[in-house]
Backbone:
């Protein structure tokens, strides 16, 4: 497809035959991408599967251990805890982020005063690296030198990262702060594509703004909601950097999500076997989720919501 | 066709996103190739060395620069890394035979695993050299030995842990530096009455909590308790000393000994030490790096002699010697087994001639480090703060037992479990018995 677009300008007159040839060449054009995918996704995945059956501390020789890594990881309560946390954070993230980014997206797509200035402010977190976001929040949430002390507001002076019951919501908040702008962008684009004629017709029919939102905007954003939801769900399986820098999985095991547990097992505890088991579990869950989501949401069909418009 | 392709492509993208996590774990096999390191170096290639960035970096830089000037054909290339990334990078590099010629380490469990895997060179003959033999404090040099053979030599300052005090805070509260654990407990209400937090600790970083545990276990049960744990004796974590230490920690937490919200305080920003020198907290249990933190955060605090020191309090009925200390004896150089012959020769000559020589010692003293070198008392007197330098030297030199930090002494998987479980003790998420049970599983 890329090749097609690239060649078109040079040979505008012979467009039809060229198009046919380009189509038949398409599988070849996918080759570089396929090679990259095999080299950077399939091969390491195979490596992880093999490693999950060996004992290796990263230094000495590897030794075959059969299924013992699998049984020990699956029997470990920390794995169960990490799975539950990952599920929790996935669910709450979708519930928190979707309405906020939907409303912000609708707002920034409209034509209000100061809209551009506000939009720039909303999108700012998107420009910052995860590590920078986490370090900044760590400083802001410091109970003695952070936001509580800065504003002199006692209720902000909490043990934000040290209370096991509070810390998960702090993490969910920081993740939302970081990712809401991205999803807002998706919704903004989605809203901008809705034909104005629909709203004009609705106005003539006497629908107010709230009715227009629920009966036109929301149904028209169906595919956008599915896209954004899929990205949130699969993305929450790989939340790592922010949590790693912000809490390191702590306090205790309170924010040790599955990817974090995998990393710490592999690179802090130096147990490559069990870490690979966790990696394989992550891949399986991720694939299953992606498949279920694409199948049952109609995402795969990608039918237009604008038929007849 | 568009339908099919779209679906396949979408799920492939989703799968690729997930599989990226697998790539992460597979990094261990490939490993990041160390830039500048000449692990597979050609004959005559420069020897390489990685150091930690920070206040002490300048002492290493100067030492290698002066060596390079004097030996143009046997140069070292020096690269600096931050502490935590270094620890992960060096292990991968050593495992892949891509380590720098001189490997910077802490001794303990990590050194033992390098020796087991045959990754470092036996330098017993080198240190038997009379010129080198008398140079180091023997108990500090002994940390570089595994099974009676020397694999590592000290290269950095002594790092015993002690209490650092804000003298003004003690005067305000009318409290004397605690000599016993009971003194410490009874001082808590007096500090709190004046609005001062008794103790600051960076609970989010986990390892600062470990110093309390290490000292308490030693004061209660003596050094043998930890020796049993390192040796992997069955149920060694259920030793009464460990249970009692954890019970006392939770009593200290209950009594309000630690600053509010200590679980959120991180140490890389220096927020823990800052509480002490700003007078919001009275004391902290810390490595000598706390002194460096005060030096850079509030030099006036030092020049006006507001910083005080105290040994860790004794525990009534405890078996441990009150002179015992915990911490990091020093840092160490090992010679990589995967280096070329020429590189090894350069490294060994450097160790024999330049390691901790006079100018190196002076440079270390300039960065608030006290080198583990014998007979430097006259030089300590000439430093900017002889009280501090002498204290550190005496603490380490006179200690019957200098316990290496547990997270370094233990296997990495045990260390990870220890730090996390200990954090749960401090946050009262688990009981001392649950701690011992969880840790016994790692033996």
Residues:
């Amino acid at each position: 497809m890329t090749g097609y677009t690239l060649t078109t300008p040079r040979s505008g007159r012979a467009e039809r035959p060229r198009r046919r040839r380009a189509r038949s060449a398409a599988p070849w054009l996918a080759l570089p991408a396929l090679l990259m995918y095999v080299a950077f996704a399939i091969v390491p995945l195979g490596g992880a599967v093999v490693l999950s059956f060996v004992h290796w501390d990263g230094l000495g020789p590897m030794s075959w251990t059969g299924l013992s890594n699998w049984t020990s990881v699956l029997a470990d309560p920390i794995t169960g805890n990490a799975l539950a946390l990952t599920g929790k954070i996935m669910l709450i993230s979708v519930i928190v982020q979707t309405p906020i980014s939907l409303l912000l997206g609708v707002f920034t797509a409209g034509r209000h005063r100061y809209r551009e200035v506000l939009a720039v402010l909303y999108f700012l977190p998107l420009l910052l690296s995860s590590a920078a976001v986490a370090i900044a929040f760590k400083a802001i949430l410091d109970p003695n030198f952070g936001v509580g002390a800065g504003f002199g507001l006692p209720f902000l002076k909490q043990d934000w990262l040290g209370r096991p019951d509070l810390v998960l919501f702090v993490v969910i908040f920081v993740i939302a702060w970081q990712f809401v702008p991205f999803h807002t962008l998706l919704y903004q684009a989605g809203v901008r594509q809705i034909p104005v004629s629909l709203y004009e017709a609705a106005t003539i029919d006497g629908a107010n703004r709230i009715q227009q939102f629920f009966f036109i905007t929301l149904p028209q954003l169906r595919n956008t909601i599915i896209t954004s939801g899929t990205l949130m769900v699969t993305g929450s399986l790989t939340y790592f950097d922010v949590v790693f820098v912000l809490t390191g999985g702590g306090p205790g095991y309170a924010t040790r999500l599955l990817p974090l547990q995998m990393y710490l097992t592999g690179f802090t505890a130096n147990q490559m076997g069990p870490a690979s088991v966790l990696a394989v579990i992550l891949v399986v869950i991720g694939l299953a989720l992606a498949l279920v989501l694409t199948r049952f949401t109609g995402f795969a069909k990608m039918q237009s919501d604008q038929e007849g418009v | 066709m568009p339908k099919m392709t779209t679906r396949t492509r979408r799920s492939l993208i989703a799968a690729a996103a997930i599989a990226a996590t697998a790539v992460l774990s597979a990094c261990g096999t490939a490993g990041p190739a160390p830039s500048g390191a000449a692990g597979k170096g050609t004959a005559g290639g420069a020897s390489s060395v990685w150091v930690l960035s920070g206040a002490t970096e300048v002492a290493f830089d100067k030492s290698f620069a002066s060596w390079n000037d004097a030996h143009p054909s046997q140069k070292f290339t020096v690269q600096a890394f931050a502490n935590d990334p270094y620890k992960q990078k060096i292990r991968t590099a050593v495992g892949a035979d891509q380590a720098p010629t001189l490997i910077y380490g802490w001794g303990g469990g990590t050194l033992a695993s390098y020796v087991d895997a045959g990754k470092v060179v036996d330098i017993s003959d080198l240190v038997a050299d009379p010129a080198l033999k008398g140079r180091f404090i023997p108990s500090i040099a002994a940390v570089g030995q595994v099974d009676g053979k020397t694999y590592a030599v000290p290269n950095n300052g002594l790092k015993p842990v002690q209490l650092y005090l804000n003298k003004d805070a003690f005067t305000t509260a009318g409290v004397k530096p605690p000599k016993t654990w009971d003194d410490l407990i009874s001082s808590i209400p007096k500090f709190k009455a004046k609005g001062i937090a008794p103790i600051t600790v960076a609970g989010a970083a986990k390892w600062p909590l470990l110093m309390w545990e290490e000292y308490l276990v030693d004061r209660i049960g003596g050094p043998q308790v930890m020796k049993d744990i390192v040796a992997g004796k069955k149920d060694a974590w259920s030793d009464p000393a460990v249970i009692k230490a954890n019970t006392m920690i939770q009593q200290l937490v209950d009594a309000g000994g630690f600053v509010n919200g200590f679980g959120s305080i991180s140490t890389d920003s220096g927020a823990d030490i800052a509480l002490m020198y700003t007078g919001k907290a009275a004391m902290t249990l810390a490595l000598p790096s706390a002194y460096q933190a005060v030096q850079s955060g509030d030099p006036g605090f030092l020049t006006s002699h507001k910083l005080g020191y105290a040994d860790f309090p004794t525990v009534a009925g405890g078996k441990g010697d009150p002179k015992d200390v915990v911490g990091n004896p020093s840092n160490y150089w090992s010679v990589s087994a995967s280096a070329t012959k020429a590189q090894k020769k350069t490294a060994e000559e450097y160790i024999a001639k330049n390691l901790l020589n006079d100018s190196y010692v002076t440079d270390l003293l300039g960065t608030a480090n006290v080198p583990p070198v014998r007979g430097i008392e006259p030089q300590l007197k000439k430093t900017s703060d002889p009280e501090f330098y002498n204290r550190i030297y005496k603490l380490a030199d006179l200690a019957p037992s200098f316990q290496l930090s547990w997270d370094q002494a233990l296997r990495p998987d045990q260390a990870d479990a220890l730090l996390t479980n200990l954090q749960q003790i401090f946050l009262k998420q688990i009981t001392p018995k649950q701690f011992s049970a969880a840790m016994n599983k790692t033996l």
